[in-house]
Amino acid sequence: MSVRADPEEHVRVRGIMVSTLRLAPSLLPVRCVERWGMPNQHGIVVCEDVIIHIKYDRTRDELIRAWAQPQDHTHTERRDETRSSCVVS
Asked: Which residues pair with 54 in a beta bridge?
């Protein structure tokens, strides 16, 4: 019997399916970092409007654990709206 994850629990980033569950990250080859770019000091990469959290596997150098979350644009949109509506007299 095979078990399939729900489509909402994964997102496709540059052709690679990444888990959106923090407690069940995807186990992927390190080559994925070449496609997404190097993570910052906190292990975060932003690629295709998706925030990818990366942790390098401690026992196997060739693997990473990654989980993704869609980028929230509502905060920046609200900030832009308040900026445009501000009038200096």
From this structure: 66
In angstroms, the CA 30 to CA 65 distance is 9
Interatomic CA distance for residues 80 and 61, integer angstroms: 42
**pTM for this predicted structure:** 0.70
Of residues 20 and 82, more confidently modeled: 20
**Strand pairing partners for 53?**
44, 67
The residues, any chain, with a CB within 8 Å of residue 33's CB and separated by 6 or more, are 39, 45, 54, 64
- Domain locations in the chain as residue ranges: 7-85
Distance in angstroms between the alpha carbons of the first and the last residue of the chain = 70
Please name which of 8, 13, 5 lies closest in space to residue 64, comparing C-alpha atoms.
Answer: 13
Contact 49, 59 (CB under 8 A): no
